Amino acid sequence: MLLFSDSEEKTEKIGEEFAKDLHRNSVVAFYGDLGAGKTAFIRGICRHFGINSVHSPTFGLVNEYQGEIPIYHFDAYRIDADGWYDSGFDEYLDAGGICLIEWSENVELPPCNEVHISGSGDMVREIEIIKEERR
């Protein structure tokens, strides 16, 4: 599915709509350059589950948000595949929450939903969503 967004608010709304298809133990890999809108999309997902305070976990690797379903928001920008597994990431996969992983290109993930966002600054964002079958 290919969508377009001309604002941060619209990117959030697209994320909120996408969230309707997520369930416990869903994993979503996010791809896109710095400033593309990955965190805005994630804010929309979290809002759908009753979470209103969301920020990128750049220095902490993971932020845990408690809502209707727990959300585990990862930032893999500063980690490689070995460090990713050493961090215990795999324990979150079946913890009953939803895993949202920014900078997914830096780590190895199981088959999962993918969100590719291109564009930055004032550019219109192109958002490609690839849905994975339910695990």
Write a short abstract of this structure.
The chain is α/β, with parallel strands linked by helices.
Give me some keywords for this one.
Rossmann fold, alpha/beta, globular, single chain, seven-stranded mixed sheet, 135 residues
Q: What does it look like?
A:
With 135 residues, the protein is α/β, with parallel strands linked by helices. It has one domain: 3-Layer(aba) Sandwich (Rossmann fold). 24% of the residues lie in helices and 26% in strands. It contains 4 helices and 7 strands. The protein has helices at residues 8-18, 38-48, 81-86, 90-93, and strands at residues 2-5, 27-31, 62-65, 71-75, 98-102, 113-118, 125-130. The longest helix is centred in the first third of the chain and has 11 residues, at 8-18. It is globular. The two termini are 20 Å apart.
SSE blueprint:
Elements: E1 2-5, H1 8-18, E2 27-31, H2 38-48, E3 62-65, E4 71-75, H3 81-86, H4 90-93, E5 98-102, E6 113-118, E7 125-130
Parallel strand pairs: 2-5, 2-6, 4-5
Antiparallel strand pairs: 1-7, 3-4, 6-7
Our measurement of the CA-to-CA distance between the termini, rounded to an integer number of angstroms, reads 20 Å
Strand order of the largest sheet: 1-7-6-2-5-4-3
Quaternary state of this entry equals single chain
User: Rg, please?
Assistant: 14 Å
Please report which band the strand proportion falls in: under 5%, 5-15%, 15-25%, 25-35%, 35-45% or over 45%. Answer: 25-35%
Helix-strand string: EHEHEEHHEEE
Q: What is the CATH topology? A: Rossmann fold
Number of domains: 1
Could you say which overall geometry the principal axes of the C-alpha atoms support?
Answer: globular
